[in-house]
TrEMBL record:
<dbReference type="InterPro" id="IPR005843">
    <property type="entry name" value="A-D-PHexomutase_C"/>
</dbReference>
<feature type="domain" description="Alpha-D-phosphohexomutase alpha/beta/alpha">
    <location>
        <begin position="112"/>
        <end position="176"/>
    </location>
</feature>
<dbReference type="InterPro" id="IPR016055">
    <property type="entry name" value="A-D-PHexomutase_a/b/a-I/II/III"/>
</dbReference>
<keyword id="KW-0479">Metal-binding</keyword>
<comment type="similarity">
    <text>Belongs to the phosphohexose mutase family.</text>
</comment>
<keyword id="KW-0413">Isomerase</keyword>
<dbReference type="InterPro" id="IPR005844">
    <property type="entry name" value="A-D-PHexomutase_a/b/a-I"/>
</dbReference>
<dbReference type="InterPro" id="IPR016066">
    <property type="entry name" value="A-D-PHexomutase_CS"/>
</dbReference>
<dbReference type="Pfam" id="PF00408">
    <property type="entry name" value="PGM_PMM_IV"/>
</dbReference>
<dbReference type="Pfam" id="PF21404">
    <property type="entry name" value="AMG1_III"/>
</dbReference>
<feature type="domain" description="Alpha-D-phosphohexomutase C-terminal">
    <location>
        <begin position="478"/>
        <end position="511"/>
    </location>
</feature>
<dbReference type="InterPro" id="IPR049022">
    <property type="entry name" value="AMG1_III"/>
</dbReference>
<feature type="domain" description="Alpha-D-phosphohexomutase alpha/beta/alpha">
    <location>
        <begin position="43"/>
        <end position="88"/>
    </location>
</feature>
<feature type="domain" description="Phosphoacetylglucosamine mutase AMG1">
    <location>
        <begin position="352"/>
        <end position="424"/>
    </location>
</feature>
<protein>
    <recommendedName>
        <fullName>Phosphoacetylglucosamine mutase</fullName>
    </recommendedName>
</protein>
<dbReference type="GO" id="GO:0000287">
    <property type="term" value="F:magnesium ion binding"/>
</dbReference>
<dbReference type="GO" id="GO:0006048">
    <property type="term" value="P:UDP-N-acetylglucosamine biosynthetic process"/>
</dbReference>
Length: 524
C-alpha cells in the first residue's frame, strides 16, 4: 500500500494550515504520506495525534490535511519539513522506515506494534466537503493496514479537534464531540447565569463506543490545573465529572436573543444545531460559495442576510468569525480587528487587576492598531496563526486576531488559578480559537453597535503570476500616493497578494493600478 503512493506532479509545501490542493490523485497521495508522519509523531511523543481533513475557507473542490500535536498545538516546524520530505519524495516507504529508526528507534514497520501505548492513537476529524469522506476513508484504510489504533470523530471543526486531542492526552481518556458541546454549553451558561439553568439528563445514544467512560471537565472553586504526569499535558479544566450517559441542555428562563449566523454551509451548522440553542442559520447551499466570512469580507455584498440585523459569519471549518449588518444596501463589518478590540475592552472589565495584551496582523488597519494601543499592549505578527501564537505567549493574558476572523486567547496557569468561575468561563471559551465559542462570548458580552473607530480604506488584490517568489519594490509608488502596503506570496496558492491602505479610496485605486502593472511587468 505504501509503495503505491507517488510524489505530486508539482512540489507541495506544508504551510501554516497544512497541505491544501485541488482534490485529486496528488492530494490523495499527499494525505496518505502525511498520515505516516502523524504515526511517527505519535510514536515519538507516546501520545495521541490529531489529523484533520479540511481546506477551511478554500473553494469546495479543494481539500487538505492538517496535523495537530499532542498538546493541541500545531506540529513543530521540524515536522513540517518532514511532511515536505515525505510528500515530495519518490520513495515514501523508505523515508517512513528511516524516520521510524532515526526518531523513534524502531527498526522497521513490523516492530511498531510493540511500541504502542494503550492510550495513544490517531484522532481523525473532517469537514463537510464532498471529497472529505473519500479522503478520510483512505486514511483509515492505511491505518488499518499498518494496524495503527485510531478514533474517528467524524464531522468536527478544526479548533474542536485541537481541543479533543489536547484533552484526550491530558485525561488519558477519549474526549468526544458530545463532551465538547457540553463544555461550550456549561461555560455559556455561566456567562448567562442570571438567565439560564443547566440540566443533565440521561441519554442512551451519546457515545459510539460503550466500552469506555468519557471524562468531561468543568470548574470548581479555585482548584489548580490538573496535569497528566505521564505526558505533562496541562488541562485547563479543574474538575472531572462522568458524562458518558448524560446530555446537557439549557433552559432559557428569560429570552436569550442570539444573532443569526452564516456558517458558509460548513461544519458550523452542525455544531450550532448540536448546541440546541435558538440560533437562526442563514447561509448558502454550497460550501464557501457566495457565503461565509471570507466572501463577506472580500465582496462586501453578502447574499444571505436579514436587513438591519447584526449577523455572524463563519468560514467552512468554523475557525473564523466576523459580524456584519446590511442596511439600505450598505454594509457595516466587524472584522477580526474590531472584534479583538471589543473583546479586549471586555477583558479589561472582567480582569481589572490584569494587564491585557493583544497581537494584531501586518494586515490590520492602522486605525485599529492605534486605538488598541490606548488600553492594551500591542504586538504585530506576520500572517499565519503559528506566528500569532508565538507572540501572544509573551503575555500573561493576551488576545490575538487576524482581520479575517481567526482569533483566540492565551493565558498562563497563574491567571487561570486565581480566576473565579465567571472569569474562567471567559478564558475557557475564548481560548479555543473556535468561531462557535467566540460567538457565544460575543453574544453574551459584546456591544456590537457601538463604533469605536473609523478604519482607513484598504484594498486587497490576489494576482496569479508565474513566479510568486520574485521580489518587487513598490516603495516609490506607495510614497507617491501616501499609502501603506506590501506584497506577500501566498502560502497555499500560486498567487501573490497585494495589500494597500490609504487615506482615501481614490489614492488607493491609483496606487493599486501602478503596483499591479509593476508586478506583472516584473514577471516578463
Amino acid at each position: 500500500m505504501l509503495e503505491r503512493t507517488t510524489k505530486p506532479l508539482k512540489e507541495m509545501k506544508y504551510g501554516t494550515s497544512g497541505f491544501r490542493d485541488l482534490f485529486g490523485l496528488d492530494l490523495k497521495n499527499a494525505i496518505k504520506r502525511t498520515t505516516l508522519v502523524a504515526i511517527v509523531r505519535m510514536l515519538e511523543t507516546n501520545s495521541s495525534i490529531g489529523l484533520m481533513i479540511t481546506a477551511s475557507h478554500n473553494p469546495v473542490n479543494d481539500n487538505g490535511i492538517k496535523l495537530i500535536d499532542h498538546d493541541g498545538e500545531s506540529i513543530p516546524t521540524e515536522y513540517e519539513e518532514i511532511c515536505n520530505e515525505f510528500v515530495n519524495s519518490t520513495k515514501g516507504e523508505e523515508i517512513f522506515v528511516k524516520y521510524l529508526l532515526k526518531i523513534c528507534k524502531i527498526p522497521g514497520i513490523k516492530q511498531m506494534k510493540s511500541h504502542f501505548n494503550k492510550n495513544t492513537r490517531i484522532l481523525l476529524g473532517r469537514d463537510t466537503r464532498p471529497s472529505s469522506p473519500e479522503l478520510i476513508h483512505d486514511v483509515i484504510e492505511l491505518l488499518k493496514y499498518l494496524e495503527i489504533p485510531y478514533y474517528y470523530h467524524h464531522i468536527v471543526s478544526t479548533p474542536e479537534l485541537h481541543y479533543l486531542t489536547k484533552e484526550t492526552n491530558a485525561t488519558g481518556k477519549i474526549i468526544v464531540h458530545h463532551n465538547y458541546i457540553n463544555f461550550l454549553l456549561i461555560n455559556f451558561s455561566i456567562l448567562k447565569n442570571s438567565k439560564s439553568k443547566i440540566y443533565f439528563k440521561t441519554s442512551a445514544s451519546i457515545n459510539e463506543d460503550k466500552n469506555f467512560c468519557c471524562t468531561f471537565c468543568i470548574n470548581e472553586g479555585n482548584r489548580p490545573f490538573e496535569i497528566n504526569e505521564e505526558k505533562k499535558i496541562e488541562s485547563f479544566n479543574a474538575k472531572s465529572i462522568e458524562l458518558s450517559n448524560k446530555d446537557v441542555s439549557i433552559e432559557q428562563t428569560d429570552k436569550i436573543i442570539l444573532h443569526p449566523v452564516d456558517t458558509a454551509y460548513g461544519v458550523g451548522s452542525k455544531v450550532l444545531k448540536d448546541l440546541k440553542l435558538n440560533i437562526e442559520i442563514i447561509t448558502g447551499d454550497l460550501l464557501n460559495f457566495n457565503c461565509g466570512s471570507d466572501y463577506v469580507l472580500t465582496s462586501g455584498k453578502p447574499k444571505h442576510f436579514i436587513e438591519d440585523t447584526w449577523q455572524a459569519a463563519f468560514d467552512g471549518d468554523a475557525d473564523r468569525i466576523i459580524y456584519f449588518k446590511m442596511k439600505n444596501d450598505k454594509i457595516r463589518i466587524l472584522d477580526g480587528d474590531n472584534l479583538c478590540i471589543k473583546l479586549g475592552m471586555i477583558l479589561n472589565k472582567v480582569f481589572p487587576e490584569q494587564k491585557i495584551g493583544c497581537v494584531l496582523s501586518i494586515y490590520s488597519n492602522s486605525k485599529a492598531i492605534n486605538f488598541a494601543k490606548q488600553f492594551m499592549q500591542v504586538e504585530i505578527a506576520e500572517t499565519g496563526v503559528k506566528n500569532f501564537i508565538k507572540k501572544v505567549k509573551a503575555f500573561e493574558l493576551g488576545l490575538f486576531f487576524e482581520p479575517n476572523g481567526h482569533g483566540s486567547l492565551h493565558y498562563t496557569k497563574e491567571v487561570y488559578n486565581k480566576s473565579n468561575d465567571y472569569q474562567r468561563a471567559v478564558l475557557n471559551l475564548l481560548s479555543l480559537g473556535d468561531a462557535v465559542s467566540n460567538y457565544l462570548v460575543i453574544e453574551s458580552l459584546v456591544d456590537l453597535e457601538k463604533e469605536l473607530y473609523k478604519p482607513n480604506p484598504i484594498k486587497d488584490i490576489a494576482l496569479k503570476v508565474k513566479d510568486k517568489n520574485r521580489k518587487v519594490d513598490i516603495g516609490s509608488i506607495l510614497k507617491k500616493y501616501k499609502c501603506n502596503g506590501f506584497i506577500r506570496a501566498s502560502g497555499t496558492e500560486d498567487v501573490i497578494r497585494l495589500h494597500l491602505e490609504g487615506e482615501s479610496t481614490d489614492n488607493i485605486e491609483k496606487c493599486s493600478i501602478e503596483c499591479v502593472n509593476m508586478i506583472y511587468n516584473s514577471q516578463e
